[in-house]
Structure formats: structure tokens, C-alpha cells
Write a structure and sequence with these properties.
heterodimer; A: alpha/beta; six-stranded mixed β-sheet; 25% strand; globular; B: two-stranded antiparallel sheet; 68% helix; elongated; binds adenosine-5'-triphosphate; binds magnesium ion
Chain lengths: 248, 424
Amino acid sequence: MEIALQLTNLKKQYGLREVVHGISLTVPAGEIFALIGPNGAGKSTTLKMLATLLKPTSGEVNIFDLSVVDHPEKVREIISYLPEEAGAYKNMTGLAYLTFMANLYTANPELAKQFIERGIKLADLGPRIKDKASTYSKGMTRKLLLARTVMCAPKLVILDEPTSGLDIINAMSIRTTIKELAKAGLTVILSSHNMLEIEYLSDRVGLISDGNLHDVGSPKHLKEKYKAENLEQVFMRATGNEPIKEAA
Amino acid sequence: MRSFFILLQKELRELFTWQIVVPIVLVAAIFLGLGSVISSEQEKAKGSQRILVVDNDGSAASATVKDLLGKANFTVITASDQPENTLVEQAKKENTSVALVIPKGFGEGVASNTIPELTSYSVIRSFSISGNQSGLVLESAMQAINTYFSAQLISSATSIRADRVLQPVATIEKVAVGDTIATGKTSQVLGYVNAQTLYIPMILFLVISFAAQMIATAVASEKENKTIETLLTMPVSRKQIVVTKMLAAGLVALIMSAVYMVGLRGYVGGFGTMGESEGARVLIEQLGLNFTLSSYTLLGTSLFMGILVSLALALILGSFAEDVKGVQGLITPLMVLVLIPYVLSFVLDFSSLSGPARALIYAIPFTHSFIAAPNLLLQQTTPVLWGILYQFVVFIIFVYIAAKIFTTDRIVTMKISFSKKKVV
Ligand SMILES: Nc1ncnc2c1ncn2[C@@H]1O[C@H](COP(=O)(O)OP(=O)(O)OP(=O)(O)O)[C@@H](O)[C@H]1O
Ligand SMILES: [Mg+2]
């Protein structure tokens, strides 16, 4: 089994404050792995280290056997990252944005064309794809950015709260897309606050709070372990909050 | 290299918005318009220099006066004898601003032992130099008339050479520039050189500040629009990102300076012809005070280095900005560094400053761009070369720092807003 992602005692400090306290984790290729945890737990910080945006204070991150510290430029060729908060260039149309990004990914015009076509389909903006990005709603922008992230078919996709700001229908179609990508062999690591989404999507879940990885397992395994009916209860119990009254 | 052009194209597209292009074109058009207005005003003042003359004498002497006026480039229009207010009225109607009355008995007066009077009128409609050109020329024409008649008087009454009486000591004024010495006046040199180079510091100041503003805004808007994190995870080198950003802003700044150069030259060139006499032109040529191709090249290099330093510094300052609004405040230190040599170069000769003051002013990399033009005119090439070298070193240091910021956490963490943290 090929290993897509290997974290070894990963730590991150902002100034003097350590916010990620030594996370170790292995994610095999083709898996959809989800990070869940309260606000400020360190999910985005961890994902940014994977995306080569932040340097780990100590520990290691290897993506398909490439160290993000030693070979960030090589890592960037095989990953694709969707930030928690992101925008598109205001003066570009959605189409121009996809074209710009596709051309940065590949020098092959044929391939770029394929990427762009896939991006247009995934963004699903209809004729609005030819409008300036500054005229898009929050959800439309999010769809464009998500399309950009996955259209280039890298080996590892890093998604920080991919469906935040999307309505149910659009969120659903994004989830289907992510599942299909994983079936085609892509590895996906994502964070989310939507437990339904996590349960539907992920092969395995990592529970983070206060910069520590408390538990890792499949949704089914975690539910059994915490004697919970759903992931929301797992989340509450694992983070030490009172269990809410069980739903009938 | 391919991704380089893709990035550059994007940077240019983000910069060339109508908010930037319209003001450039507008300002250039205004300067050009002003320039052509000024030069056409001057042409008008020169071409239609007419004078109303009331000749109540009709003598040989009064004919000489009109002749001398003609030599001073006036077209004489004969007017009839009339009270002075109607004479002025007529002058206004004829669209001239000067008139002269030669009284009856003028010729006899000149020949006898009296002092006859000529009365001149000058209509002041504005306080500009070009608007009052005729009046000013008339003043010197009146002096010339006097000199003429005194010369005549002297030679008819005595045996002394008239020119000796008028100017008993001949003064030969010479100016030296470098090794070249030529006959002429300091004021002529200053007037000519200032008219030719006045626009250089203006453009330099405009372009350096625009370039700084542009690149700092480019970084800040990437942060404000939250595009920077995505860009930084793309498979392109951070150096390319930094360099294309600077190059795009530099190109726009260069285009802008070219446009301004044309506009300002038109504007300043309008003044240029004013102090420019044939004598001054010859003098300047003798002194070698003209830009040669190599000095133009050095001047251009020095200006461009100034722009580069400004870009690199602004990129560093801009990366601290959280949003576009913050840019103005952040690049203030840079603006001060540009303003100091800009303002001081008009009033001070930096090379004659005391040691510490001179070191301080030369430490500002922009100083060298501002003093390049005068130094090159004076054939002082060595300080210009050192200046360029110094600017280059400073530029490399700044680029290194900027690239460092872009390759570390800093570019991402410097913007993160902590107020966003929510309670579970
Ligand atoms: N640039 C920064 N400088 C200092 N501290 C930071 C910075 N960014 C994040 N932090 C801190 O690091 C901790 C983890 O933040 P992070 O954004 O990783 O949390 P998260 O799990 O993604 O939370 P959320 O669910 O709200 O997105 C928080 O305490 C946060 O305040
Ligand atoms: Mg987060």
C-alpha cells in the first residue's frame, strides 16, 4: 500500500505559543481523511503545513515520500490546496481564472485544455463563468475555487472546510465529486465542521482538539468506541463536553 | 520560464485597470495641453508684437525712433493725436498692449540743449511674463533709444569715442565648466540648464512614488482578496512570484514615466524657449553642457535603478499590509526617503555639504537618481557610476529580504486576523 501522507511528531509554534503539539499520522493513498475538532484546534494550521504555506517548527511531513520542508517546490507539483478563506482575482472572469491556474500547473496545452474543461464542469456556473469573479456570490466563488483545486488532478488534495458557504444542493454535488475523485485514486485530506458530510465522505476521521490528535478511526469505529449514535456525539464526548440527550 | 510569463500577464492584467490608466492619460493630456498653450501664447507674444505710435513731430529723429522700434521687433502702427485714454482704448481694440507718443518738437529738442520726453503706455492685462512681453521689450527698446541718441550727442559735441563714454570699462565675463572655459554669464547657463532639466526630478518623483504604490497595492490586494495563499501553493517558484510582481509594476511605471516625460517636456518645453537666446545656446554648446548618448544611457540607468529600489522596498513594506487601505500608511517611510532628496536637490549642492550630512543624504538610494542629471551635464561620470552601483547593492539586499519574506511563514502569518476566532 502506497503512503500518501506521513506526519511525524509535527509541531507548530506561532511566536512562542505552540498550537500543534506533535501530531503523528499516516494516510494511505486513495483515502479520504477528515480532520474534525473545535474552532482553534489547529486544523487549518496543520493543513497549511501540508500545503507548504507554513514551515513546521519541528517534526516531519512527507507527501508521497517528499519532505515539505526540504522539497516544497516538488511537493507543490503534486498537491492542490483550497484555503479556508479564499477569493479569485477580481479582474478575471471565472474562465480566465481557471485558465490562469491550469497553465501554471501544466506546460502541456492539451492537458491544460482538459483541466479547464473539467474545471468549467465542476464549477457548474453556467454562462456566469464568463463574468468577472467580483460579481460572484460567496457560494459561486467557493465553487469556482473548489473546481480549480480539483480540476488539475494532483495526487493529494487538501481541502479546508470545502463546503462552507454552500447550499445543500451544491454541497451535495461537491461531496459526490470528491468521492468520485477518491475512487479514481486521488488522496483527499479535508477539515469540516459538518458531521454529516464527514460521515458520508470520509474513510477515516482524526479528532483534533487543542493541537493534539486524540483519536483516529473510521466513523463506524469511532461511534462504537464512544458509544455514540453519530459523529456529533463522538465529537462532544471526545472533546470532553457533556453528551447531549440521545436522539430517538 | 513559461509560468513566469503567465504570472507576469496576470500581474499586468491586475494592474492595468481603468482606475490606473485613466488618471495617467488624463494627467499627461493636461500637461501636454498646458505645454502647447504656453508655447502658443509665447509665439503669439512674439509674433504679434505691435505698437501704436503717435508721431506729432514727423522729424528725422522721430523716424529714427520708429526705426529703432522696428529693430526691437515691433510692428509700428501709426495712430492719430488723441487724449491718452482714447489712445489706450485704441491699443486695446487693436489688440496690442503698448503705445508711444512722440511730442511735437522732439527732433529739435534732441538737437538743442533740452531733454525731450517720449511717453510710453503699457497695458497690463495679466501678471504673467508672456502676457507682458511687449511691455518688457518696450522697456529695453526705450533704453536702446536713449543709448542711440546719447552716442549721437557725444560724437557731435566732443572728440571722445562715444562707446567709451557709454562703457568706459569693458567687462569680459567667462564661465568654466570642468576644463572648458567660454565667454558668457552664469545666469545664462543656469537659465538654460534649468529649463532643460527641470522636468527630470518631477518625473522621477512621480514615477518612483507610483511604482511603490502599485506594487504595495498589488501585494495588499492579494491579501485582501485572499488570493495569496492559493498562489503560494501553486507549482511556481516564489522568486518568480516576487520578480513578476516587480517587473509588472516596473513596466507600468516605465510606461507611465514615458507618458509623463512626453507630457512634461511639452509643458516645461513651453517655458524652455523663454530664457533661450541664441547666445545661450552657443554658450551651452561650447561648454559641452548637453546630454550625449552615453550620458542619456547613464541617466536612464540611474532612474531605472531608483525605480527598482523603490519597488523592492515597497514590496517589503506592502507585505505587512493587511489590506489595500493599509498601504498608504505603510509606504510613508519610502515616500519620505524620496521626498528628502527631491526637495533638497532644488536648493542644495549635496557635494558641498559637511561630512555627516553628506553621508546621510548619499545613504538614501534615491538621492543618486536625483543628482544624476546635473552630474552628467557637468561631465562628472564617476559619482554617477558609484551611485548606480550603490543603488544596485541596495536593490539586491531589498530583493533578498523580499524573497525571504515570501519564502517563509511571514507572508502568510503577517496578515492573519486574530479577531476571527469564534467560541465553540
Ligand atoms: N498567524 C497566527 N498567529 C498566531 N496564532 C495563530 C495564527 N493563526 C492561527 N493561530 C492560532 O492557532 C490556533 C489554531 O488555529 P487554526 O486556524 O489552526 O484552528 P482551526 O482548527 O482551523 O479552527 P477553525 O475551526 O476555527 O477554523 C488558534 O489558537 C489560533 O488562534
Ligand atoms: Mg480552520
